[in-house]
Prior knowledge:
Helices cover 24% and strands 20% of the residues of chain A. Chain A is of the alpha+beta class. In chain A, helix 6 runs parallel beside helix 7, helix 10 packs across helix 11 and helix 10 (308-322) crosses helix 12 (457-472). Chain B contains 21 helices and 23 strands. The longest helix of chain B is centred in the N-terminal third of the chain and has 26 residues, at 167-192.
Amino acid sequence: MASLLQSRTPGLSFSSSLSSTPVRRPSAFFLKPRSGSRIPVVRAKIREIFMPALSSTMTEGKIVSWIKSEGDVLSKGESVVVVESDKADMDVETFYDGILAAIVINEGETAPVGAAIGILAETEDEIAEAKAKATSQSSLAPAPSTPKVEEPSPAPKLDAPSPAVAAAPAPTAAPSTPGKVVATPFAKKLAKQHKVDIDKLVGTGPFGRITPEDVEKAAGITPASKSNVAAPAAPAASVAPAAVPPKAPSSFPEIPGSTVVPFTTMQTAVSKNMVESLSVPTFRVGYPIATDALDALYEKVKPKGVTMTALLAKSAAMALAQHPVVNATCKDGKSFTYNSSINIAVAVAINGGLITPVLQDADKLDLYLLSQKWKELVEKARAKQLQPNEYNSGTFTLSNLGMFGVDRFDAILPPGQGAIMAVGASKPTVLADKDGFFSVKNKMLVNVTADHRIIYGADLAAFLQTFSKIIENPKSLTM
Amino acid sequence: MQSAISLSLSSPSTIARSDCTAAAAANSYICTPRSLRFCGLRREAFKSKSFNSLSVSTRLLPCSRNSSFKKVCAALQSNGAPSKGEFDYDLVIIGAGVGGHGAALHAVEKGLKTAIIEGDVVGGTCVNRGCVPSKALLAVSGRMRELQNEHHMRSFGLQVAAAGYDKQGVADHANNLASKIRSNLTNSMKALGVDILTGTGTILGPQKLKFGKGGSGDTIITAKDIIIATGSVPLVPKGIEVDGKSVITSDHALKLEFVPEWIAIVGSGYIGLEFSDVYTALGSEVTFIEALDQLMPGFDPEIGKLAQRVLINPRKIDHHTGVFASKITPAKDGNPVIIELIDAKTKEPKGTVEVDAALIATGRAPFTQGLGLENINVQTQRGFVPVDERMRVIDSTGKLVPHLYCIGDANGKMMLAHAASAQGISVVEQVSGKDHVLNHLSIPAACFTHPEISMVGLTEPQAREKAEKEGFEVSITKTSFKANTKALAENEGEGIAKLIYRADTGEILGVHIFGLHAADLIHEASNAIAMGTRIQELKFAVHAHPTLSEVLDELFKSAKVVSSSHVAQPVAV
């Protein structure tokens, strides 16, 4: 058995003499000042739990499972976490008593040896502080605040024979707590996982028992994400869940002989995103662009593996670089969120679904790299192997139906983005110039849908003007 | 046990080997003739009816199974004629379960005229209501588990649409398997000419019994020797009302008449664990109720801990430990099944659990009523028939009842189907004139969860206790399935094997395996214990690569035996 390598975090130590002897921990000493001004004294005892080195060859370890959950009271020598090394799973014990305040590295994730995987607090008072520390430790930042359902407790608990036992958080699934058990085993597991107070729930299952669905509902989880597999979310799965408008009670007439095919996970995600988009006030601006120069360039670079998608993405990215507001997002309806990178999501139809692989930093990569990257992304998308950040990190979306001969269309703005561009087919068109001369040139229509809370008509017009200049004079694309 | 074995180890290097394959099988076979000679000597003692001299004789292990050359000729004969004509049969076995079946087959091989009495169906608990149908259900649950585990499938590059099951199809599979094995069993006895007598067997006196449906129509027969092999039934503790629908035993559960959304399993031993595997795979949630403080009592603690991490914690299972189910009321009048819990020690109430169904898996009770044991002055202990180490029945005065033996669950020594069979074979050896004592420590046990658990010999605490008493040191070594190529190819690297041994002699005290196909892997260790093979010899045995058996290979190789001087090195031929 290995033991946790823990250290006091220096910034939080209140006294250097104590920090050099981390084992010394006279609890009575710490209990005393709690009545008085406790802040300067008690806040010292937050320890990081480090990824231990279980063998000499181990460089990183995977968390198999946390035996303890956040909030559990730990005593010295207890197994806390199971770590997978290059050879075997090992239980890891704690050196110290305390409370597991926060889990930094979740189950199934990997951390290098020596990295903080959890935060141990000495007393309950420090949990909040430790949690704050945990969030700064890791961008993963778990523990979202769970909406609690305020309902009267359905089953008043019987008085425990020994109140001391009942008061302490039981390490196991509360087998020793007397009283009516009305939650199913999986419901209890979920409640613990999502930090839902199960006593406050009202069960909807048989005999009024709390079912896993009840807990998921209370935790704000949609049943769609029930499977532990990350569902490939279609057009930019938004992080901030916008309020879903209540579905209008609809009753369509039954047409005999119809078949009902349930949505796949991807289709469910598309549907959800589309409904969500209704809460954003959008408007549309169209623009005709001559493409003769672009077509000529395309013919030249095609043998080098450059695709039209890459050309359009690169052009859009370069235009966005000059108009950052079109690359911005309105997250809360009160502010602009300017994105630091320009990530072009490109909508791709994939048998029975729709996904938006993202070309990250499209303004910085050259055409060839971008084309190569795009090829990889499409292959991955076909194999359903896209990582979440490869389909939900877009800041601007491009949708092209030109290859099908569509001359113009109108795209729905995916939640979480400021604008989406719909590109139609390039077609020979008779044009008259300012001197009245007629000519035939290839022309395509682009149509941009944008969130009017942050992007106004003039912004979009200016952006489109820049975009059309780049397309009509595409030399800068190859530079 | 040790003495007999170490004797045999001293000589083999002098024997020339003409056959390469025999070299691997090594020393244990070579000792066989010697052991047989011992048995022969003892037969003389047996004939002079001096039982006392028998009971003080050295315990001898391997003699029955090794005399294969003799078996072959014997098996060609059919059921023999009764030896002297004084008795209807040489051997009558009451109960045609796996124990009785094993004894009957061996008896025919030994040339004994044999009859078997069965009041229910041939095959007993194992075939009809136990090991066999439960394996069918577990085979289904294993596949369901695999198909449902998208992550697992994806790591193979496989894509599977949502897996579902048809309850009746699953139940039929279990039922068909039971009938098939049952007819195999019946046919194998019929083919050898074993008389299958239908009805309840009752002992009337020494070497005399009757069978039939009870009453005057019963037939009275005599037999030189009688084996009781009546087995067991599910144990239902007081206060629990079994209705066969919402409160059930394994007998009902195996028919899979309904898959409840939430089932409480009372008892977390083999039966409870296997059913938790089946039910959770089929979508139920499970609550364990265990009287002891820990789940999975009886398993090696370390194995139990790991198994709990894999078989319980990630599944939809919770548990109440240290509590008895004092009262269980079946579901009726629109109420769920109500289980009242009390503290196992203080007997204080510990609340109630309301579930859709409850499975009582608290163990098994011997089925010994109506056997007529009172006619021969035998008193059962908690239902079990008291026996000595040779399965000879002991009466209420502590004396052995001549010509009466009891094997299997009915004697309670080791309630496993294959143990009953081994005991039966041991008894047949004795009645056909060769002394034999079965080493129960060499009998493996397995729990067919996914992955499986298997064990043979002592657990670590038992070994440490024994070591303290006898003054030797226990050594332990472990290997992981994670390091095994075949396991990794199957994406099933979860699991360990653990060897408990004496470093001074190389004797195996116990082996515990948790991992893929553990139940099939244990036999290398159980055979080694039975044959008395030492670790220093096993280290030279070759295992095919890549196979799971290399987990054990590595286990033996990682053991450190202090002195191995008396072991002959393998010689290249």
